[in-house]
């Protein structure tokens, strides 16, 4: 049953998001073509317009991905479709896990498309050299591969966005347990949940900093810290966000199992 739920969730998500995927890739290709035509002011202007459209599509991919995830959650569990959803012989845990799996899959797909779009539009020896020059001081100072640096920060960003989506689910669950102003209360509860999760990360980081002078200096100064401390921060960020996501998932399922008030 989980596979069937996931199938319908993904179909709903990709039905619209895939349009932005296609547009971003098209504008990326046009950007590459027009900006590589030399000695033509008109082609350069068109290339810049395509470049702006491409960047706009990248933002639209993430924004629409997030908004459709929240809209699907609300529609299935608290909207018109909820009457059918809650009569199905399916455990609340399975219903919620379907949403989390579709969240992970669509966000990952969006990240891949964004990376591919940037690669198509900008990849060149000059672009690679520019990235290397930006990250080389960090890579050289810490003797770390540039690709690993990029992947580490990309994974942390992915976890942060996944956390944002899930606290949105928390807000929707709590907000729709009230009788009035459900949408506004969902936003408020989601913001509170997000604040708590971020404060938790900062608190743990500060506690670690009390026992690590390098990390403490990073908080209060702009000094470069050691590779060991940098690795601690990266690993700690990954572990903390993963822990937060798992705990939020457990809490949301518990709250969801307490019952749903359908409009």
Describe what you observe in this structure.
It is a single chain. This protein is mainly alpha-helical and 263 residues long. It is built from 9 helices and no strands. Helix 2 (41-78) packs antiparallel against helix 4, helix 4 packs antiparallel against helix 9 (227-257) and helix 6 packs parallel to helix 9. The longest helix has 38 residues, at 41-78. The radius of gyration is 22 Å and the shape is flat. The two termini are 26 Å apart. The model has no long low-confidence stretch (mean pLDDT 84).
Descriptive key words:
263 residues, mainly alpha, 9 helices, 85% helix, flat
Task: Please sum up the structure shown.
The protein is mostly helical.
Instruction: From the alpha carbons, calculate the radius of gyration and give it in angstroms.
Output: 22 Å
Strand proportion:
under 5%
Helical percentage = over 70%
Count the helices. How many?
9
**N to C succession of SSEs:** HHHHHHHHH
Count of individual beta strands: 0
Q: What is the end-to-end distance?
A: 26 Å
Overall form: flat
- Major beta sheet summary: none
Structural class designation: mainly alpha
Low-confidence stretches: none
Q: What is the mean predicted local confidence, pLDDT? A: 84
């Amino acid at each position: 049953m989980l596979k069937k739920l996931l199938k319908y969730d993904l179909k709903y998500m990709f039905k619209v998001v895939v349009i932005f995927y296609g547009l971003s890739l098209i504008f990326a290709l046009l950007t590459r073509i027009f900006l590589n035509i030399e000695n033509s002011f008109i082609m350069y202007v068109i290339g810049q317009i395509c470049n702006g459209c491409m960047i706009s599509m990248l933002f639209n991919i993430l924004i629409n991905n997030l908004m459709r995830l929240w809209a699907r959650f609300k529609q299935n569990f608290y909207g018109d479709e909820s009457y059918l959803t809650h009569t199905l012989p399916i455990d609340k845990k399975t219903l919620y896990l379907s949403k989390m799996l579709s969240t992970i899959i669509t966000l990952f797909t969006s990240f891949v498309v964004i990376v591919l779009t940037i690669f198509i539009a900008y990849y060149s020896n000059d672009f690679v050299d520019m990235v290397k020059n930006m990250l080389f001081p960090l890579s050289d100072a810490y003797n770390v591969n540039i690709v690993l640096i990029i992947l580490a920060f990309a994974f942390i960003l992915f976890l942060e966005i996944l956390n944002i989506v899930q606290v949105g689910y928390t807000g929707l669950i709590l907000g729709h347990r009230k009788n009035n102003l459900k949408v506004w209360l969902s936003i408020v509860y989601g913001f509170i949940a997000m604040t708590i999760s971020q404060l938790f990360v900062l608190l743990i980081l500060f506690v670690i900093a009390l026992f690590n002078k390098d990390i403490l200096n990073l908080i209060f100064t702009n000094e470069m810290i050691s590779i060991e401390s940098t690795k601690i921060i990266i690993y700690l960020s990954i572990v903390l966000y993963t822990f937060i996501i798992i705990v939020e998932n457990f809490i949301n399922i518990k709250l969801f199992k307490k019952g749903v008030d359908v409009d």
